[in-house]
């Protein structure tokens, strides 16, 4: 039986999706019209239709330009994901030649993963698939929490395994492994030896990534490790980035857990010491996750092969 919703696709002009994406991206009717290849009056008419549909101004006059309304801000990410998914849907099933294809791939990954794989992936695409487009979206807690919806609208996500990723329609393949290490400033007077104890970790001030509220969220990999150690860290700096962590450890008495592959790249430059992590932490296993609906897509199979081959070279 067909599924029904309050808004039926058959009753919509889906060309408005593309117009909406450009209007929200450009925040300017004239520029959006130019990108769409239509006249300015046509783009203005489409904006008027969108305003009627949503019952909202979407673009609000501010000085000499426009800003997004609160609703438009919510729509911006959604329309990008929907348009990307539609483009991928209608491109599925054709033969794929990376040397001539202009296919766009959307990947979600942490900045740590970009540090490990980014330059290799970029060089390979430039060499083997010069017209292929890549859209990299940085991991946020929201992506992990709504994985069932997100994974349908992207080509894949690189992340460690957590229980909510283990779904019937979600596939994954291992890419590479890493381990947690402790990083401290080389001149930190509180750390004199070559090892840290759990008691010291509990006493030192911390830099923590992806820490929106008090107490580590279960989804944060570093938080899971400290929870296993029974540590309630005294967090002094919260950042939304793994690569930012060592910068806020340098020159202070703070400590942080960091992936060893990332730590070794920045330690000398920032004057940090890398110490083994006490408490026998779990290994880090980065996997590539995708929706089962893309199993038969030749372009997606090529992408999976590229990522696994690059990871194997590590």
From TrEMBL:
Superkingdom of origin: Bacteria
Keywords: DNA-binding, Transcription, Transcription regulation
CDD domains per record: PBP2_Nitroaromatics_like
Residue ranges of every copy of the HTH lysR-type domain listed in the record: 12-69
SUPFAM superfamilies in alphabetical order: Periplasmic binding protein-like II (SSF53850), Winged helix' DNA-binding domain (SSF46785)
PANTHER family given in the database record: HTH-TYPE TRANSCRIPTIONAL REGULATOR LEUO-RELATED, TRANSCRIPTIONAL REGULATORY PROTEIN
Family: Belongs to the LysR transcriptional regulatory family.
Name of the protein in its database record: LysR family transcriptional regulator
InterPro entries: LysR-type_TF, LysR_HTH_N, LysR_subst-bd, WH-like_DNA-bd_sf, WH_DNA-bd_sf, YidZ_PBP2
Pfam families found in the cross-reference section: HTH_1, LysR_substrate
Source species taxonomy: Bacteria, Bacillati, Actinomycetota, Actinomycetes, Pseudonocardiales
């Amino acid at each position: 039986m067909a599924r029904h919703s309050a808004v039926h696709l058959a009753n919509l002009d889906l060309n408005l999706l593309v117009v909406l994406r450009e209007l929200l991206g450009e925040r300017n009717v004239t520029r959006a019209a130019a990108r769409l290849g239509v006249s300015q009056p046509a783009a203005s008419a489409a904006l008027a239709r969108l305003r009627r549909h949503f019952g909202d101004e979407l673009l609000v006059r501010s000085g000499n330009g426009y800003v997004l309304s609160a609703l438009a801000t919510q729509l911006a990410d959604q329309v990008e994901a929907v348009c990307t998914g539609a483009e991928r849907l209608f491109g599925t099933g054709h033969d794929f030649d990376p040397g001539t294809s202009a296919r766009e791939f959307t990947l979600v990954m942490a900045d740590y993963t970009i540090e490990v794989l980014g330059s290799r992936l970029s060089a390979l695409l430039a060499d083997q698939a010069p017209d292929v487009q890549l859209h990299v979206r940085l991991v946020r807690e929201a992506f992990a929490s709504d994985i069932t919806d997100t994974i349908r609208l992207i080509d894949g996500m690189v992340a460690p395994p957590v229980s909510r990723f283990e779904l019937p329609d979600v596939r994954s393949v291992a890419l590479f492994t890493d381990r947690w290490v402790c990083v401290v400033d080389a001149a930190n007077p509180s750390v004199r030896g070559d090892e840290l104890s759990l008691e010291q970790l509990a006493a030192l001030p911390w830099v923590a990534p992806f820490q929106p509220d008090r107490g580590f969220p279960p989804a944060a990999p570093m938080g899971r490790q400290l929870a296993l150690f029974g540590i309630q860290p005294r967090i002094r700096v919260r950042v939304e980035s793994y690569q930012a962590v060592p910068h806020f450890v340098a020159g202070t008495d703070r400590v942080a857990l960091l992936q060893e592959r990332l730590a070794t790249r920045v330690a000398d430059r920032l004057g940090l010491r890398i110490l083994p992590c006490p408490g026998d932490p779990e290994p880090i296993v980065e996997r590539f996750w995708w929706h089962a609906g893309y199993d038969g897509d030749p372009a997606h199979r090529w992408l999976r092969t590229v990522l696994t081959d690059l990871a194997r070279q590590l």
